[in-house]
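Researcher: Let's do a round of design. I'm pasting the structure tokens now; please hold your answer until I've finished.
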């Protein structure tokens, strides 16, 4: 092939490296550079194809096989399992939280919420029968097995705080778990250990103390504002009903005792009703009876009427020398030696 033909071929294919003589038009003869592997690789790199050798260039690429991860349990999972897997993937929470989230709280009996409130407030695991007896006394319900509309409303109101807490808990479980990086406390005073063994943040403990102090202040102000208790009773005064009023003046000691109770009700219950044999339901039931104003008024009114009747009877005995008991006549001699004798005895003498 002539040099002119080679030059023409290079001009027709500008992508190939110039293997001819740039001065061919001037009929000048120059030496042609040899086509080396390095030159080809350099040329390909300039064109965007970066290979390390011609063997790599000529190697047939392996086919790309698309892989997909297969879940071997997918066919065994039902709709509930799939819903849980999705819940766990989105929130990072467990099975128990999933069950709590999907509970229909409106389908739960108000009795269950009321029982849970008693268990939380007392800190004891009483049986359902024991709690039901307490609820009937506390709420004035004759029987939890046959609730009237009014009784159902009382029961729902008593357990409302527990139901609201469950609703808030469900809303919380809808959110993903916040991952907290473990940190090493720099100051041991940042945590406080309570008497029951629980450990809480010092800031939370300070809030608890502040709230408790506020509670005590409010309770103290309220109790100190009470000076006397008034009781009324109706008597029959010769066929005419008459209302009598009685009052009890509270002493400083009385008010101090009341403040001690309302300041820490849990402590009061623990000290007075929890025994080695368990909870003293008898004493608790008797004391709770007096918490209702209508019960107090009924009992005190009865006591006042009985005391008044006995006082009148004693007064009549003193004034009229009335003896309401049957006794035999005098048969003993007087202290002056006079003997009481019948008329027949005198005739015989």
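Researcher: That's everything. Go ahead.
Model: Designed sequence:
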């Amino acid at each position: 092939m002539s040099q002119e033909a080679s030059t023409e071929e290079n001009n027709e294919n500008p992508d190939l490296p110039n293997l001819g003589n740039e001065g061919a038009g001037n009929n000048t003869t120059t030496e042609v550079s040899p086509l080396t592997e390095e030159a080809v690789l350099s040329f390909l790199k300039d064109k965007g194809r970066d290979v390390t050798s011609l063997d790599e260039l000529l190697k047939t690429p392996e086919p790309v096989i698309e892989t997909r991860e297969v879940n071997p349990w997918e066919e065994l999972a039902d709709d509930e399992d799939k819903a849980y897997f999705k819940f766990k993937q989105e929130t990072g929470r467990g099975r128990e939280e999933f069950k709590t989230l999907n509970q229909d709280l409106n389908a739960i009996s108000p009795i269950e919420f009321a029982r849970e409130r008693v268990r939380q407030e007392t800190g004891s695991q009483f049986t359902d029968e024991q709690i039901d007896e307490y609820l009937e006394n506390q709420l004035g319900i004759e029987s939890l097995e046959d609730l009237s509309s009014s009784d159902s409303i009382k029961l729902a109101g008593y357990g409302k705080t527990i139901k609201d807490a469950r609703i808030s808990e469900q809303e919380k479980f809808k959110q993903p778990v916040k991952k907290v990086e473990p940190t090493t406390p720099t100051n041991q005073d940042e945590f406080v250990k309570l008497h029951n063994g629980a450990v809480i943040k010092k800031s939370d403990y300070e809030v608890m103390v502040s709230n408790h102090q506020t509670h005590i202040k409010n309770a103290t102000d309220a109790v100190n504002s009470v000076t006397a208790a008034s009781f009324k009773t109706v008597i029959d005064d010769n066929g005419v009903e008459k209302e009598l009023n009685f009052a009890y003046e509270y002493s400083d000691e009385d008010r101090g005792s009341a403040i001690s109770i309302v300041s820490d009700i849990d402590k009061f219950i623990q000290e007075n009703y929890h025994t080695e044999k368990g909870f003293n339901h008898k004493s608790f039931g008797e004391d709770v009876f007096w918490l209702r104003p209508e019960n107090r008024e009924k009992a005190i009114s009865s006591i006042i009427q009985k005391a008044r009747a006995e006082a009148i009877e004693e007064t009549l005995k003193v004034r009229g020398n009335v003896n309401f008991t049957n006794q035999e006549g005098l048969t003993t001699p007087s202290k002056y030696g006079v003997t009481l004798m019948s008329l027949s005895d005198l005739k015989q003498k």
